[in-house]
Write a structure and sequence with these properties.
This protein is α+β, with helices and mostly antiparallel strands. The chain has helices at about 10-25, 30-45, 100-120, 140, 170-190, 200-220, 230-250, 255-265, 275-280, 285-295; strands at about 45-50, 60, 70-75, 85-90, 130-135, 145-155.
Amino acid sequence: MTARAPYRSLRGISAVAALLAIGAVGCSDVTDTVDSAKEGAKKVARQRSVFSLDTGDCYNPYGKAEGTAYTVEIVPCDEAHKGQVVGEFSIDEGKEYPGDDGVSAIADTRCPVEAQKYAPDTWALPEGAELFFYTPTAESWATGDRLVSCTYTAEQGTLSGTLDTAKSLKPEQLTYLKGSNAVYEALWANQSEKDTVEADLPGYKAQAKAVAAALQDHVEALNGIDGAEVGTLRSTLAKAAGDWEKAARATDADAFYAAYDPAFTGIDPNKSVAARKELGLATTVPAEEAEVWAS
């Protein structure tokens, strides 16, 4: 069972500190000191253990976004904040701690999936929002902690408002996003660790098979969505699925390359912009994705 630490409130300590500060200054500085003390007290009252974070919480970390953390400041989402919890899950990997790298690998795989349930349209995310996660340490694992909290964090600046968009999306928008996200998840999650096809043809073929399957599901789901641009995209993706299938059946590296080039081009995110516009979704390709297909 996941161990959740209780909320931590230091209201009493902050009140004493405020009184001491007021007594140490002249009357002309009392107002500024009181305001400062109130602000400090508010931050302390909002302090929460990272073990008690819940999906939807907006927060400011104490110190750097990365590294070991014990507490964060929970804030209303309409206030400026550095991050928001967009999903969570428990690790079920037996009794032994998987190690820091093992825990990170699990989070790397699961957090994108969990985050997309909360904020399905990654194109609509604020610029600079990156996926981070809070994971168990060896010490917290020993106490029963298995919870991973997935968060979007602003690497620079702050976020404003909630990222919870799933509830406001229409059924056809959710259908499109579910299929589209699955295609790119299949592409990146199955990427071979080898730099060349010659070094790992089976690995690249496995990736192609996974992408082809995701595309087939996506194309089938798009059959239930009306719209001329959606229909055009459906035809484009159906052809791409065929090319990925050819790559998955390649008998050598040359055959794989011949199929891979049109297959990869066929899922260029830019090809989906018109359909996204028709569906009322975000239409600006994220910079990282645009760079991949531009290279």
